[in-house]
Amino acid sequence: MKIKTFIIAIISCLSALLLFIGIINAQSDSLILQSEIKKENFRLAIVETNSINNDTLQTVSNFKRHSIYAELLGSSIYYSVNYDYLLRIYKDNIKLAVGAGIGYISLFIGAGPQRNLLRAFYFTPEANFLFGKKSHYFETGVAFMTGIFHGKCVHVHFCPSGRVGYRYQPQKGGFLFRIGYTPVFNMDLFGCCLFGASFGYIF
């Protein structure tokens, strides 16, 4: 009888020990699984963050910088063919467009015996800040037209001007449009109010 009771006690102890070991193993497996899930979630979060950052950087950096366009009136007073290059100042919200335009005119001035053929070649460097995002910008800046006029004599004419206007400049390139108020400031045309409109291509 005592032997039977002793065997039953041993079996009970072994069963309890095996049950305890099973519980410990189950908890250990659960902790390992939770740790693996946390690691995987952390890895996915890093991948997603990097993907967002890369997309943002790509959007910021891959804008088209070169523009060619024709302007009627505006900073060159008559017309001009222009090129400018965009520099990013702050993200995609502030840019600087630096460029220049050229033009040529030939016209008669005066009447009768005083009629004279006037030819002029002019060069207009220009710098404008662009404030906005995506495709739409407020544009403001300055230009300085230098014209060489040839009639009865040759003379050089300087004509500084300002600009306040709107510029449509898609980041991916394509059609460019801008319109602006371009007051001219010099001794002959001080405060002369002119407007200019431009059409061109971004690449």
Describe this structure in words.
The chain has 203 residues and is an alpha+beta fold. It has one helix at residues 2-61; strands at residues 66-73, 79-90, 94-109, 116-133, 136-150, 154-168, 174-181, 195-202. It has two domains: 1-62; 66-202, Porin (Beta Barrel), CATH 2.40.160. The protein contains one helix and eight strands; from the N terminus they run H-E-E-E-E-E-E-E-E. Strands 1-2-3-4-5-6-7-8 form an eight-stranded antiparallel β-barrel. The longest helix is centred in the N-terminal third of the chain and has 60 residues, at 2-61. It is rod-shaped.
Notable traits:
Porin, 2 domains, 8-stranded antiparallel beta barrel, rod-shaped
Strand content: over 45%
Tertiary shape: rod-shaped
First-residue to last-residue Cα separation? 100 Å
Q: Helical region count? A: 1
Please give the CATH class of the largest domain: Mainly Beta
Strand order of the largest sheet: 1-2-3-4-5-6-7-8
What number is the mean pLDDT? 80
Helices and strands: which structural class? Answer: alpha+beta
- The fold-level CATH name of the largest domain is Porin
Number of domains: 2
Helical content stands at 25-40%
Please identify, by name, the CATH architecture of the largest domain.
Answer: Beta Barrel
Radius of gyration (CA) equals 38 Å
- Element order, helices and strands? HEEEEEEEE
| Largest sheet entry | 8 strands, antiparallel, barrel
